[in-house]
Design a protein that fits this description.
Layout (H helix, E strand, L loop, with lengths): L11 H6 L9 H9 L3 E5 L6 H12 L18 H4 L7 E5 L8 H18 L2 H5 L4 H11 L11 H13 L3 E6 L3 H9 L2 H16 L5 E8 L15 E4 L14 H10 L6 H8 L2 E3 L2 E3 L2 H11 L19 H8 L3 H11 L4 E5 L13 H9 L4 E8 L2 E7 L3 H22 L3 H9 L2 H12 L10 H12 L5 E5 L2 E2 L2 E2 L2 E5 L6 E8 L10 H17 L4 H5 L5 E9 L2 E8 L2
Parallel strand pairs: 1-4, 1-5, 2-3, 3-4, 15-16
Antiparallel strand pairs: 6-7, 8-10, 9-10, 11-14, 12-13, 14-15, 16-17
Helix pairs in contact: 5-7, 8-10, 9-10, 14-16, 14-17, 17-20, 18-19
Length: 566
């Protein structure tokens, strides 16, 4: 029987104890021991295995862990210098992702719970006899969540000191998703308070802490200008630009080939590669591990020909990306068009993302999208001590996010700002020429595919028609012998309803676009309404006055034809 797939498994002991398929990343431990600084910050996009990697470190270094978890893995072949460090240290492990809440009180309560949980996990200290008097009382207060939020700023340093008193050894600190509470607080209005808290917590635990062995911190972004890491001269930053550690977050090509072969899906290699490969971390080309595993889940057994899906689209944080895109100027929209067409853009890259300054300049959008996995570097150059990177969309999965989310965000923002009264008036009258003029007005400043991507135009039309207090818009409903494109139902039964069908014009070779081509496509759209009986559902609901619009599109131009009656 083949091993189970580790869907959502973030704990190393669970991964190994329950016979899940595990892609062996344990040589990360060797490289960390060889190259580590006292405080090591790893930045990678969401869903690239950061939590599992930290838990692997905890299971390897922490006293009392089961060494059999590492049997047969690469680290056991690394030599005694490395294996002799197994189970030799106390470890503090905090994840800050639980602080992604909607208000300040619940965020600090989540952080307090995390810290209190580590005191409870180490309450053997109380039995060791190493603490007495005020220290013992303070330990109990932290364990039982009694201190006020400000008192927790020194809690990790105090726990390190308690562990050293009880074991005689320095502590390893592991902190996961350190930037989640910063992003959340930025949008929820208590950013300055959270910055102050995280800065004080880190300073106490990581700066001149004589009870610290080393620390590993993970996050999506490097945040330093807010002085989160003030005065940490011992900080080693490993971003996606850093040459080291590239293959440990994400799957390599060899690892993907092996897992596909194991599950009998070797013939799916090219599909998986085109959809989920393409991320460049350091000197390594890697696949999105979350999406690869989810693809395997959906294709094992009878569903092996199931179409690929953009699994990462709904897991990655994109609130800031959306916010920046909604503020984008026309040049930025043009550059996103170029990316979607398969082109590239060159932008200056800076690693320090500053929430407080994120809206100051448009280049912050590109940097945020790069470091969070929406773009990848294909080449780089230095000029005047500044790094300039050539950026492209990494793969088909990410391209899907652009087509289904980012481009639609542009359309939604456009609709918010547009006065659409004339659009609806011309539609109501059956004024094809006027309706065409109003659509083109909205289409021109929007973002669209130069290869006439039909789904964009469908989403665009639904977007500009939605929100009227006179009509209900139904999109791609079952109707007649097929699926209609758009049904426009008036709230009053005696008003005119509309069926709208869309066509895109494709050019072959070097053939020039003509109005005749656009007119033919618009007529074909109306014919499709008739042939497939798209208006049947409106007739069944009792609407007797129905108009039909056929609209053809090519890039940022449209042609509208109209026929009355049905």
């Amino acid at each position: 029987m083949k091993k189970s797939l580790p869907i959502g498994v973030e704990f190393f002991n669970k991964m190994r104890s329950n016979d899940y398929y595990y892609v062996d990343k344990t040589f990360f431990i060797k490289e960390l021991i060889d190259k580590k600084g006292e405080v090591n910050l790893f930045t990678r996009p969401r869903r690239f295995g950061k939590t599992l990697t930290l838990d692997m470190l905890r299971c390897f270094f922490e006293e009392g862990q089961d060494p059999s978890l590492f049997e047969g893995l690469k680290i056991m072949e690394a030599g005694e210098r490395y294996t002799s460090m197994m189970g030799k240290f106390p470890v503090i492990f905090l994840t800050l992702k639980s602080a992604k809440t909607g208000d300040e009180k619940s965020a600090f309560e989540a952080l307090r719970n995390e810290i209190a949980g580590e005191f409870r996990r180490h309450d053997f200290v109380l039995e060791s006899g190493a603490l007495s008097g005020q220290n013992k009382e303070d330990f109990l207060r932290f364990r039982d969540r009694k201190p006020e939020p400000d008192e927790y700023k020194g809690s990790l340093r105090f726990l390190c000191e308690c562990l050293k008193a009880a074991t005689g050894k320095n502590t390893i600190i592991l902190i996961d998703e350190y930037d989640v509470p910063l992003e959340s607080s930025f949008y929820d209005g208590y950013y300055d308070h959270m910055v102050s808290f995280i800065r004080s917590l880190f300073e106490g635990a990581l700066k001149t802490n004589t009870s610290l062995e080393f620390a590993v911190i993970t996050g999506c972004l490097r945040i330093s200008k807010e002085s989160i890491f003030t005065g940490l001269n011992n900080l080693s930053i490993i971003s996606i630009l850093t040459p080291d550690y590239g293959e440990y977050f994400g799957f390599t090509d060899e690892e993907v080939r092996s897992v596909l072969e194991y599950y009998g899906l070797s013939d799916k290699y090219e599909e998986v590669r085109s959809w989920y490969n393409g991320y460049i971390f350091g000197n390594s080309n890697v696949y999105n591990p979350w999406s690869t595993i989810m693809y395997l889940r959906d294709h094992i057994g009878e569903d092996r020909d199931y179409f690929p899906v953009s699994y990462w689209a709904n897991t990655s944080s994109n609130s800031i990306v959306r916010d920046l895109i909604e503020r984008a100027d026309s040049d930025t929209k043009g550059e996103i068009e170029k990316l979607v067409e398969g082109g590239s853009i060159e932008k200056p890259v800076h690693e320090d993302i500053t929430y407080g300054e994120i809206y100051d300049k448009q280049d912050n959008l590109w940097n945020f999208m790069f470091f969070t996995g929406y773009l990848k570097i294909t080449s780089r150059r230095f000029e005047a001590d500044k790094l300039y990177a050539t950026l492209v969309i990494p793969n088909r999965e990410t391209r899907y996010i652009y087509s289904e989310k980012i481009i639609n965000w542009f359309s939604q923002e456009l609709v918010k700002k547009a006065d659409r009264r004339a659009l609806f008036e011309t539609m109501k009258k059956g004024d094809a020429e006027g309706f065409e003029k109003e659509i083109n007005k909205l289409l021109t400043p929007s973002i669209s595919y130069m290869d006439s991507y039909e789904n964009f135009y469908h989403g665009f039309m639904v977007g500009i028609l939605t929100g009227s207090n006179e009509y209900i818009i139904k999109s791609n409903r079952e109707s007649g012998d097929g699926r209609s494109d758009i049904l426009v139902r008036p709230l009053r039964m005696f008003d005119k309803a509309f069926v709208i069908a869309l066509k895109t014009v494709k050019l072959e070779g070097r053939k020039p676009l003509t109005l005749e081509m656009m007119d033919v496509a618009a007529e074909e759209a109306i014919k499709q309404i008739d042939d497939r009986h798209y208006a049947d559902s409106l007739l069944e609901e009792g609407y007797g006055n129905i108009g039909r619009y056929g609209i053809s599109f090519f890039r940022k131009d449209c042609r509208v034809h109209y026929k009355d009656g049905y």
